[in-house]
Amino acid sequence: MTMKYKHIIWDWNGTLLNDTSLCAQILNDSLRKRDIPEITVKQYREKFLFPIKTFYESIGFDFDKEPFDNSNNEFNTGFANQFKSLALQPFAKDTIIKFSEQKIMQTVLSASRDDRLKEQVSFFDLTQHLQHVIGTTNLYAHGKEFEGEELLLTLDIPVEETIIIGDTLLDFNVAQYLKIDCALVSHGHNDMKRLDETGAFTFSDIQEFYNWVITT
Questions:
Q1: pLDDT of 33 higher than 90
Q2: Which end of the chain is more exposed for a tag (fewer CB within 10 A), N or C?
Q3: Are 197 and 104 in a shared domain?
Q4: 110-149 tens-digit pLDDT
């Protein structure tokens, strides 16, 4: 079987890690402390965007009253303390193992801080199936374009044989910046309506993505 793609770049949060409900819960803890109305998971998926500060402002945080660092640190601490209670998305580990057996290069590229990303990927026993696990050097989740660009410059795989798979508009924007194809799954932090509007390949889950990509 010959696949078009020789390099799969995975997003982490929401794509491989099933963490949307936890993220909404931690966010609501911060909203409640400030007497700001809480949001549902549905509203979270309709509104979530990068940069994170802009998303927070869109749901009621006022950073004229307090620094963004306060709520951002609350989230990062809460997530670090609770991520071990999470599970991977359905089909995530099996699909990564299948690609590994087929000698397809795989990378996890995330806007999360690099050391925390590596800890989480290792906890879920995925590191040995991946060639690269790359996060950022900050806790602000601004983006991951630079890290992706640096990675691609070190590889001999043509960009047309590389695809990023994510769950948010950020992943689409990163793919556009890197000039690579993009697939988006709707089980994460953005809903299908927003993903469809990008024009990227969209799928309901990782199994559906796998079935498509192996025949492409």
A1: yes
A2: N
A3: yes
A4: 999 999 999 999 999 999 999 999 999 865 556 799 999 9
The CATH number linked to 151 is: 3.40.50.1000
Range of the domain at 133: 7-18+87-213
For residue 2, what pLDDT is reported?
78
pTM of this prediction? 0.95
* Other beta carbons within 10 Å of 190: 27
Q: Which residue has the tokens 């630079």?
A: 146
CA distance 25 to 171: 23
Residues 6+ away with beta carbon under 8 Å from 73: 139
45-69 pLDDT, tens digit each: 999 999 999 999 999 999 999 999 9
What is the DSSP code string of 8-66?
Answer: EEE--BTTTEE-HHHHHHHHHHHHHHTTPPP--HHHHHHH--SSHHHHHHHTT--TTTS
User: Does the CA dihedral 42-81-93-165 come out positive or negative?
Assistant: positive
Q: Which two tokens stand for residue 204?
A: 């309901």
